[in-house]
Amino acid sequence: MPALLDLHGGQTAGMLHFGQRRAIAEMLTDEGHHIRLMVQASSTVASGRGLTALVLPPSVVVRGARARLNDSVAPARRALIRFALAAASELMIDPTLAALCDARELQPLIRHVAEAQLRDERAHAVALAGLLPEICAALSAEHKECFAVGAAHAVADLRAADGKRWAAILAQLELPGGAAQPQLLSLPADATALVDALAATGMGDFASLLESGRAGIADA
Ligand SMILES: [Fe+2]
Hints:
Layout: H1 2-9, H2 18-49, H3 60-68, H4 75-102, H5 108-137, H6 141-160, H7 164-172, H8 182-185, H9 192-199, H10 206-212
């Protein structure tokens, strides 16, 4: 949501035109709705299961983003790094949500929330793929590089999210993990949609940047 607020307010790529800002406002509304739905459903399920003090390990994605968004990074670059993480998340979440929709191990309420979110996220992916070329065209060469490296870092973190948080929940429910729950413990992290969307922006060869491993050693 912060990335969408930055975009809407003109901090990422200058002030966008009315139609673009309306599309971003609609995404913001959906994301707020997703948070409310998931918090409410999780609270209901956790209290029903007696999980009153659930302890989760830190998120790989959140920890990585915080490290790259430290106070020494200039505000304009912070907005680009936040947007890169948002774009990667939006364009990579589909297979994860689809797996959650099919996971019979989950409470039906959680599956229904995942189904509702999946419908919205598919619309967001289409909207974002349409917005990305125009947004990227407004960036300087330096800021395009910052965005591309930020997106590559985000993909690396999303791929590294290895299901430890799900494993922690299963352990606290005293349910077996590992082979009994393969779908939950090994969620997919397919970057194809992101690679395709960025290929249409004329930002250079993002696929090669991803595969070069540069995201692990460089900061644009
Ligand atoms: Fe979204």
